[in-house]
Amino acid sequence: MTILVNGIAVPAQDDVSPQLAAVHELLRQRALALGWLEPDAGAAQIEQAIERVLSAEVQVPAVDDMACRRYHAQHLARYQSGELVFARHILFQVTAGTPVAAVRAMAEAMLGELRAQPELFAERARSHSNCPSGALGGELGQLQRGSTVPEFEQALFESSAAGILPALVRTRFGFHIVTVERRVPGQQLPYEQVCERVADDLRGEAEARALRQYVQVLAGQAELQGVELDAAVSPLVQ
Description:
Layout: E1 3-5, E2 8-10, H1 18-33, H2 43-57, H3 65-74, E3 80-81, E4 84-93, H4 100-116, H5 121-128, E5 139-143, H6 150-157, E6 163-164, E7 169-171, E8 174-184, E9 187-188, H7 191-221, E10 224-225
Antiparallel strand pairs: 1-2, 1-10, 3-9, 4-5, 4-8, 6-8, 7-8
């Protein structure tokens, strides 16, 4: 189905979700309306204008020490030292020109198979994974926070689940089927040792929330066809 944003067709792209493409077009049109972009501008100029729009119109609330302490208390598991996860994965790589939908369908099919027959994981990793770890049955060894890309780290550490994770993990490299073999709890860190990290995390969530709200306002004022935008969509999240 063709996506239209205020009557403007949005080209489909294999490596970009329809929601993200629609949000990008909304922001481009906002930059045009503010007079910060010419209609015939190139890609680099469009990105600069969108950054200007976000900087000028998205208000991110400041965080204070009390809010940071409260956030720390609510997310104690995130602020530990020495926490380890032993995991394996199967990577379905996505590169420029890759038919993303087809790759995802293959990954979903294999995830279903492995959820039913987890004993096949190492064999499938050796035969299908696009990561060098495939030769080792997908073995990644022991992982700690900060040792992987953020999307992969979140899937590993923001849950206490063991075994094959129920959903694919999407990263900049592609789609991953992940199994957690063992978890080693870490030592709880006091707020004073992690206060700067807590503040960064809280600011990041506040920014994401402000972006979602801003996009909702733009979407509410626009005529959209072929796509739905809700609170889960922001210009920085695919």
